[in-house]
Amino acid sequence: MNTIWSDNVQGIQTLYLSRKLRFDDVFFCQYRDSFNIDKDAELKILEIGCGPGALAEAMHRWYPNAQITAIDRDSNFISFGRHNVAGVEFIEGDAEHLPFADNTFDVTISNTVQEHIEPNAFLSEQYRVLKPGGICLCLSTRKELSCIAPCLKITKEEEEFWKSVTSEKILEEYGVCQYPMSEAELPASMEQHCFKDVTTNYAIINLTPDKPEYSVTMGERIIKSMRQTNLESIAIASAHSTEYKRAIDAVKSKFDERLRLYGEGIKQWDTSVLIIMIIRGKKR
Ligand SMILES: C[S@@+](CC[C@H](N)C(=O)[O-])C[C@H]1O[C@@H](n2cnc3c(N)ncnc32)[C@H](O)[C@@H]1O
Question: Which domains does the chain have, with CATH numbers?
Fold first, then answer.
């Protein structure tokens, strides 16, 4: 039983809601060509470090004939996935010692996981469990351009809360982002681990609630995902501080205001644009 990530780093709803947006069907056209996998084939796909399972869920929608397995070492995420995500087999386990035989999968995929796992283990384990000719897809967010609405500026209550958080070492302590690699190092590392035909592509995910092409549901989902991320960050950090209730109330009320403005059609044009790198390599 390991709940390190969900208890200390990112909560279930933070990951699930933000990734449901990132892997929404409106963005599939940006992933489809980079993935370059047969939509109709009966593939065996493994997602590594799946969190609560939003990418695995999207893969099930996008590749309906595939058999999807998802693995993470955090038991809260696995339990959430088992109860809330249909069509995916969730397994608790370690990406550095994958509990699968050699040559099992046609595709392995991960999103924002590589930087947290020792690179040799991360890539060589995927190489081992892929079938010859199998595809390794490694996704990671490289940059976020963001601009917040005036009503969402950090409040005095939040500022006081974050000052009161005594443990500043949460990320370091839990091995977060111990192995960052640049846009050049990651594909080179895949080649060093024997993957061939390595390619890199970038998807641009525009999360602007006021974008006219987005439905009201989509606009509200973007705002609510930000709200949940703010609330869960405070809840997680509150283990290191006692001063969190005022900050929680402040976040709730500023997001209520953002939703009110959105509901009344008063545009703020706040945005978050993600540049997602997609690296694809093939097992020899
Ligand atoms: C940034 S989160 C990304 C989660 C998910 N891919 C997503 O995009 O929502 C990193 C994930 O990697 C998982 N993780 C870290 N090290 C791991 C390991 N050695 N084996 C399995 N999962 C691991 C964490 O538990 C966490 O769920």
Answer: 4-282 (3.40.50.150)
